[in-house]
Amino acid sequence: MAKPPTRLIVFLFLFSTFSLLEIHGEFEPSRTLEQEQGNVHEVHCSRERSKAAWKIVEEYLMPFVEKEGYRIPSRCRLHPENDMYRDQEEHKIHAALNEWRCGYCKKTFYEEKYLDKHFDNRHYDMLNVTHRRCLADVCGALHCDRVMSSLPHKTKCNPAAAARNKHLCESLASSCFPVNEGSAAHRLNELFLRQFCDSHSCSGGQKLFSLGSKKKTSVLYIITSVLILILLSLFYIFMYLYQRGLKRGTQELKRISRSGQKKKPS
Ligand SMILES: [Zn+2]
Q1: d(CA 16, CA 174)
Q2: pLDDT digits (tens, 9 = 90+) for 24-40
Q3: From the CA of 122, how far away is ligand 1's center (Å)?
Q4: Cα–Cα distance between 73 and 116 in angstroms, integer?
Q5: DSSP 3-state percent helix, strand, coil across the chain (nearest 5)
Q6: Around Cβ 48, how many Cβ atoms within 10 Å?
Q7: How do residues 95-107 score in pLDDT, each as one tens digit?
Q8: What pLDDT, in 10s, does the model give residues 192-204?
């Protein structure tokens, strides 16, 4: 019986090993796809509502806190550390209109919602899921629903819910701005009650965010300035064209009268 050549055996061994590796390599993406689709970690905290709450805090509270040079204590539920999505949100790069990049792995997406999904599936470990770190839980106090819905507020006021939200709101005021911790904290405590808590009533007399926001005034300021600039330049353009027209008109008149004078003797 002929002995099989050693080279052939080695070749067959290597070929089968590489084939196996290749098959695994091929299956790898589908396995990860399965992971990406199926391994959705359950988090009982709405990212959307947490985002809305953060936006409200940024717009209607932080300008006043910064102006006072006050540092929010970590036990306050509005402190950035108490928002489980903060780290992920800060790793969002909005590179262009339709380009959202993941700050952890640099993958890009067309829309923000796909990046959110990617965060949920791939960077779950970056979530700070310890107890009481859900910013959406204080949405009732911060009026997230009113801000999130574009429709005018027409739903019937529920006195029990209003009282509950007011209570939550007041507890936020005392934990974030304890009145016995200096004059800045005292002032901010009163401001917080006026800005967020007073409107939790069914009487309807209190305006939402009655102290306004710093951002909005600055945006309004920019819009007004741009409008004034446009109007001014239009005015100057009009004046220039008008004067040019006048000049041309008088020149024309002069020319006509001159030609009239020349024609007279003949
Ligand atoms: Zn990523």
Answers
A1: 70
A2: 332 333 333 334 444 56
A3: 6
A4: 28
A5: 65, 5, 30
A6: 13
A7: 999 999 999 999 9
A8: 999 999 999 988 7
In whole angstroms, give the CA distance from residue 62 to residue 70: 10
Helix-helix angle 112-122:6-38, to 10 degrees: 120
- Please name the residue that has the structure tokens 């997230």: 144
* Residue whose C-alpha is closest to residue 144's, from 54, 234, 76: 54
Residues in the chain: 266
Task: Give me the phi and psi of 64, to 5 degrees please.
Answer: -75, -40
CA of 91 to the centre of ligand 1 (A): 9
Measured in Å, residue 47 CA sits from the centre of ligand 1 at 17
Distance CA 210, CA 198 (A): 9
Query: Could you tell me which of 119, 89, 90 has the C-alpha nearest to residue 107?
Result: 119
